Amino acid sequence: MKKNVTLLLLILFTSLSFSQKKKVAVVSFYTDKTIDFTDLGIGNEELITSIANLRDNPDFNLTPILEKFHKEFFNEYSKKFPFELLPEEEVLTNAAYIKFQPKWDKSEEELTRYIVYDGYKYIYEGFLGKKNEEGMANIFKENADGVLFVEIHFSLVKGFGIGGTASIKMKAYCRMALYNKDGKKVFAINESAKSKKTAVMVGGIPAMSPKKILPMCESALDRLMKHLDKRLKKIAKKADKKL
Question: Could you tell me if residue 204 is inside a domain?
Answer without folding.
Answer: no
